[in-house]
Request: fold
Amino acid sequence: MQNNINKMKFLVPLISVLLGLLIGGIIMLISGYPPIEAYAALFEGIFGGSYYMGETIRQMSPLILSGLAVAFAFRTGLFNIGVEGQLLVGWLAAVYVGVFVDAPAIIHIPLAVLAAGAAGALWGSVPGILKARFKVHEVITTIMMNYIALYSTNEIIRNFMLAPGERTENVKESASLASPFLQELTDNSTLHFGIIVAIVAAVIMWFLLWRTTLGYELRAVGFNQHASQYAGINVSKNIVLSMAISGAFAGIAGSMEGLGTYQYMTINAGFTGVGFDGIAVALLGANSAIGVILGAALFGGLKIGALNMQAMAGVPTELVGIVIALIIFFVACSYLVHWLMNRVNKGGKI
Reply:
């Protein structure tokens, strides 16, 4: 029985990806675009050279961390829809430390990353407190705080950190995650050391949830708050702590952009979308650390490959968005995938 469950956890996302690609190809065909040529260009844009590989891995860093933020909250029975806002405040905190603090790189980089995590944790703890103290549903508060984060960070940049170009100054070299070695290795892509931070964060999430007493308590509260309280677990404290840790992952995702990809922060007209993509990454990865990494690899590859698909096959990048939406749809409708698998197997049984 356990083997069947583990098998389904692996097969459902895989089949969902294949179904998404298949139906996406049908939509392309109906729309007058050649699906085989489009997918050939898509995969060439992912695996066709060291530059594309570097860009895909670079894209993975914030996706992994935002996916971990969503997955961690979900594992503890909470829905953190505010990853986008927590990412923005983390991005600003990292850039602030990177611009205004003088320190050697061995201190400056960890300090900037930790500042991003602290800012995200603080932002995430507010919905946690409202949930624990006043029973306000975290979905509502986290969504609202996304907008507060967007306009607050813009106002702080505009009034205290503005440089020409509607952005902040570049972070100091001692705070930068950029790597000339990795860039040269990948044909001058924007790959940086952030991927190491993201993988370490995935290991931390796994260890915290499955190898510590704190993780056991957090998961217990997620399963059943009443039983946990009866067992002597402080439910309110764990709700706040869960949202704070989730926010910390999201804040560090922001530091990947501020210290790695861009080296600064702009005044944003709208959301980056990375935090919302984290929801899809966590869903595809079944809220597990390794699953989130694999989901981020898929989403990062699709986003980078979409640019090549448009250039070589003339297919709009929006069609890749449709494919991604279809994949998420099939993962969410796992019952449909189970039904299809049962129909394929003899006797209707796995």
Summary: The chain has a mean pLDDT of 91. The chain has 15 helices and no strands. The CA atoms of residues 126 and 211 lie 27 Å apart.
